[in-house]
Amino acid sequence: MAPWISHYHPPESTVWQGRADSPAHACFFQVIQLLNLKEPLPVIDHFPAFALLGFRCDEGIRRNFGRTGAAEGPLAIRTALARLAVQTQPLTCFDAGDILCTDSDLESAQHALGEAASLLLRQGITPIVLGGGHEVAWGHYQGIAKYSVQESLGIINFDAHFDMRPLLPDHQGSSGTPFLQIAEAHRATQRRFDYNCIGIQRAGNVRALFETAKRYDTHIFLAEELHQSRYENCIDFVSEVINRNQLIYLSLCLDVFAAPYAPGVSAPQTLGLTPWQVLPFIRQLAASGKVISYDIAELSPPYDVDGRTAKLAAHCVYDIIHYHKKRKSSWD
Questions:
Q1: From the CA atom positions of the chain, what is the Rg in Å?
Q2: Phi, psi at 36, each rounded to 5°
Q3: What does the buried/exposed string (b/e) look like for 232-255 if buried means 16 or more CB atoms within 10 Å of the residue's CB?
Q4: Which alpha helices (H) appear in the chain, and where do they start and end?
Q5: What is the pLDDT of residues 73-112, one digit of tens each?
Q6: Which of 16, 47, 84, 264 has the smallest number of CB atoms closer than 10 Å to its CB?
Q7: Is residue 79 within 8 Å of residue 16, measured between CB atoms?
């Protein structure tokens, strides 16, 4: 048995509950299939197929001096998603369980997440990884990189922060470092690094981080630009990323949203974006046919008010699934 399996917890059917009087196949709790990654994976006969994969970890947030609680995020998102209506029929969507971070061993948990994501991708299943802190991105990327080495990859991160902080002593990462780690991995393998951030807050990133982003040719669309009604410009921004890459990795940090919409995050944003300033771009990307994998990070249920952030995250998953277009293979 592969070592990464020691960090894996299979899915539980008790998570998927809803109204008993719902018509058959009407809601997510009725159509989700359980997928135990310890067992042989099924042959997929209907595409696209999705798998929710939890990353129950907030060690990266702790290392980044944030308020912890994101390890509870995957369960909260699943609970909120269970009751949402399903509009796409038939729908192939699995719950693939969780990767756990134990004994503060973030690096092993990230490696395990990469192995699990790669396993799903090889099976033709699109992962939707549920964090967990944004350290999820470095583990998730490892799986994408293992699966696809040759094709050009564009990264779009909806986030108030660059998450390109310097590594900690002993080369340890945190929730603030994943995209610097990805940048360095690209440099080591001489791959083009195409990193694009939407929703960046000037006041939330020190000047040195803007300089780091510039050094790695990061493309930025500031939150204030969307607040100033530059919507068409952002459509073009996203279109350019799609057009210059064969594959897209979409990462969504929930702290990109304003605190009234997303109070349950590690770092709430007073001047964050509204859902309707973000969802159209998620739909645009999902419909492009180029997104290889998705993740949603930083839901912290202990600080959530009325489950607002969990419900918002669930609606993002809903849009990903309902707007996602199957990627074309090289032989299509």
A1: 18
A2: -90, 115
A3: eebeebbeebbeebebbbbbbbbb
A4: 28-31, 59-63, 73-82, 106-122, 136-147, 178-188, 207-215, 223-227, 231-243, 279-286, 308-323
A5: 999 999 999 999 998 778 999 999 999 998 999 999 999 9
A6: 47
A7: no
Residues that constitute the known binding site: 134, 159, 161, 163, 253, 255
**AA identity, residue 117:** A
Rounded to whole angstroms, what are the CA distances from 34 to 30, 31, 130? 11, 10, 16
The fold of 3-323 is Arginase; Chain A (3.40.800)
Partner residues linked to 55 by β-bridges: 99, 131
Per-domain residue ranges of the chain: 3-323
CB 221 within 8 A of CB 200: yes
Q: How far is CA 308 from CA 49, 256, 260, 273, 305, in A?
A: 27, 14, 8, 15, 6
Planar angle of CA 249, 52, 178, nearest 5 degrees: 40
Per-residue pLDDT reduced to its tens digit, 120-171: 999 999 999 999 999 999 999 999 999 987 789 999 999 999 999 999 998 9
Per the structure block, which two tokens stand in for 144? Answer: 């994408």
Residues written for the chain: 332
pTM of the entire predicted model:
0.96
Work out whether strand 92-100 and strand 8-9 pair parallel, antiparallel, or are unpaired: antiparallel
Residue 286 near residue 324 (C-beta atoms within 8 A): yes
**Binding site for Mn(2+): which residues?**
134, 159, 161, 163, 253, 255
> In the 8-state DSSP scheme, what is residue 281?
H
Nearest to 300 by CA among 234, 254, 257: 254
In whole angstroms, give the CA distance from residue 110 to residue 7: 10
Span between the terminal Cα atoms of the chain, in Å: 35
